[in-house]
Amino acid sequence: MNPLRAEDYKPEQIQPTMTLNLEGEPCPYPVVYSLDAMEQLRKGEILEVIADCPQSFHAVPEEARRAGYVLLGVPVTDGPTIRFYILKP
Q: Nearest to residue 87, comparing CAs of 3, 6, 13?
């Protein structure tokens, strides 16, 4: 049986371990706070990040991958709000 790939995850399937609401925080804070929160998680746990800074749409996934984390699915947008799901492998 093949394991699910990160892009196979659907938001309704994801059970985050921690949620970080960063609405109203300008960049680079969504990236900084997300990476700090990821350090607190254990292997296999998932962080949900909620942001509304337009730059975070690209910056959060890029920096999370650079730090060795896995972005699950694609960022989910609802108006200005963006949700990211990041797995600590």
A: 6
Provide long-range contacts, Cβ within 8 A and 24+ apart, for 1-8. 6/70, 6/71, 6/72, 6/73, 6/87, 7/73, 7/74, 8/73
Q: Which residues are catalytic?
A: 27
pLDDT digit string, tens, across residues 6-63:
666 666 778 999 999 999 999 999 999 999 999 999 999 999 999 999 999 999 999 9
CA distance 8 to 52: 24
Q: Are 69 and 36 in contact (CB under 8 A)?
A: no
Beta carbons within 10 angstroms of residue 50's beta carbon: 17
pTM, 2 dp = 0.88
Which two tokens mark 11? 């938001």
